[in-house]
What we know:
The longest helix is centred in the middle third of the chain and has 35 residues, at 78-112. The chain has helices spanning 16-23, 32-58, 62-72, 78-112, 122-130, 140-147, 152-164, 198-222, 261-264, 279-283, and strands spanning 6-7, 169-172, 179-188, 191-195, 229-236, 239-245, 257-258. It is flat. Strand 3 (179-188) and strand 4 form a beta hairpin. Helix 6 (140-147) runs antiparallel to helix 8 (198-222). The protein folds into 2 domains: 28-222, no CATH class; 227-283, no CATH class. The strands form 2 sheets. Strands 1-5-6-7 form a 4-stranded antiparallel beta sheet. With 285 residues, it is an alpha+beta fold. It contains 10 helices and 7 strands.
Amino acid sequence: MKLSNVRIYAPEQWGTLEKFSKFYGSTFVLSNTGKRCVSGAQNHFNKASTLCNLAQKLTPNMELDDKELDEKGYSHAANASELSAVIESILLELYSSVDCARKVVTEICQKEWKLQGVPDSTRKLFKKVKDGEMPTTFPGELKIAISEAAWYEEFRIIRDELTHQDAGLCHRNRETNIVSYMHSGITSHGRILVIEDIFKYINDVFDGVNQFLGRVFAYLYSTLKDEPVRQICGIFQGRAYSRFVRPSEAIDFDGGVCAVKEAILSEENPDCPFMSTCKAFEKAC
């Protein structure tokens, strides 16, 4: 049976969060919770993206609710309920991503940098930054990432209601096909929350959360020691091949130095499929 080749090292495709996840171990000694929060920030964001694709697929089914209403004079709104459940799950996953990122920031600030006054609460951290109450030792780059997240407060209110109290419901405009979202448990100036275009709102929150994660982990990445870290290049012919890479070198596939060149050149081992073009292979002794 011929074994497949799977390339794993692909820094040109990684965002700052994924890069940080590959290299932070040589600089920060995170707790098990902190490690899970690094992966959680990425995985919750990816899960929200998956759910968003599902929501798009479910949207046409709302026509069945309209058909039931036209034929029977009432509708159980089963399809609207399904879409609402997925949309609310998207929002909760995005908030979980933000929450995980904040927990990483708090742990590094408190345990690694020994900073005082960094709260172990997402809402408290955002509020303290907004109110200008953070200590001067708190990194300015992180203050900017938080203070410019204008989407956060309304997003937090929705998340709190969905987590601790009631759920809302979607509605499709028959003429425009635009899906709105209403939540009677959330009010502002005496009016219940109505988001006229829920998919536009979700896209805006996605962009905001993505920018927030990018800024936070870009700064944290900049604080890493520029020391070689072993990275798995890929699984080729059933064997794991690796290299040593500095964070500053993680730009493309040529970065770093091959860690297994001697083994590759041994007769009993198969060749690396990239050895003829790989700069990391060339740089190895």
